[in-house]
Write a structure and sequence with these properties.
With 304 residues, this protein is mainly α. It contains 16 helices and no strands.
Length: 304
């Protein structure tokens, strides 16, 4: 079985490399994109769900234990893309044991995906009240504020999040996209400055290099083929890369390319990644704007 899996891994990477080699040099049409095999629920995940269902049928569980089990099942549902079932589990867990910052954080993400921004802000505020040092709530609140058009507040959250770890490329990337809205003349220079100061050990700095124009899209995708050790890792890196490419195309008013790239972001089924979570939101907003004859959504800052 291990030998078969190893052969399959290299077959997938070889197929992806061949598809990438057939593409145009700029990847502008995205007609023959680099792809990975979409991720599927593992046997282990399915077994875990079955065991949890059995546990929840017991009558001797106290509220705190039952709350934890609902939370764990919610995480499993979330990881395989069953987000409505996950949300129900998280809400059940929260009713049994309210002081759970992790649940307020993930519910805030779900509310952001549904463009229910005021409720999302409240959820993230609750997470931070329970745990001021929560590793993701401030970032996610900043992203929600960004999508809600409250760019000044978003920048405050994302700068604070960036300063906690300047060597994390994704903190730099999200701050860059907010700065494109608040200080576009400085955004590119700030991106370069943060790139130069970082240690750049994380693979994601390749995406920053692409956004800076120091690395082409083809070079980025070729590096994914070379460095990916499994189909899962390739799917994850493609999910990230396609999402941020889409945002760049969208910012440059190249909407057809952006739409295709958001769809490719969703194609790998990497449900737990923030890029997958918000690709559908981006796609829906972009398609709605195009249908209405405008590709820009008025921000709350501008409306005030």
């Amino acid at each position: 079985m291990a030998l078969f899996a190893k052969r399959l891994k290299f077959a997938v990477i070889a197929m992806a490399a061949m598809l990438g080699g057939c593409s145009t040099s700029t990847y502008s049409s995205w007609e023959q994109p680099l792809i990975a095999v979409p991720l599927q629920p593992s046997f282990e995940q399915q077994v875990q769900l079955a065991r949890i269902d059995q546990l929840l049928g017991r009558s001797d569980l106290d509220d705190e234990t039952r709350s934890q089990i609902f939370y764990e099942r919610g995480l499993l549902h979330d990881g395989i893309g069953l987000r409505d079932l996950a949300r129900l589990d998280f809400e059940r867990s929260l009713k049994l044991y309210p002081a759970q910052p992790d649940i307020f954080n993930i519910l805030g993400v779900y509310l952001t995906q549904r463009a229910r921004f005021d409720e999302a802000y409240e959820a993230f505020d609750s997470a931070l009240e329970l745990d001021v040092s929560h590793p993701y709530a401030q970032r996610n609140r900043g992203i929600a504020l960004y999508y809600g058009g409250r760019y000044t507040l978003a920048k405050q959250d994302l700068i604070a999040h960036y300063e906690q770890d300047p060597n994390d490329p994704y903190r730099t990337i999200w701050l860059y996209f907010v700065e494109l809205e608040t200080a576009p003349e400085k955004a590119a220079q700030n991106l370069t400055n943060r790139f130069d100061r970082a240690e750049r050990e994380d693979w994601g700095w390749n995406i920053v290099s692409m956004l800076m124009g120091s690395e082409t899209e083809q070079q980025l995708l070729d590096s994914i083929v070379r460095s990916s050790e499994s189909n899962a890792q390739m799917a994850e890196r493609l999910t990230e890369s396609y999402f941020y490419m889409a945002k760049r195309y969208q910012h440059e008013n190249q909407y057809a390319e952006a739409v295709q790239l958001y769809k490719l972001t969703l194609s790998g089924n990497v449900y737990e990644f923030v890029e997958h979570r918000f690709a559908a939101l981006e796609l829906n907003r972009l398609l709605a704007a195009l249908q209405n004859g405008t590709a820009q959504v008025e921000s709350e800052d501008e409306a005030l």
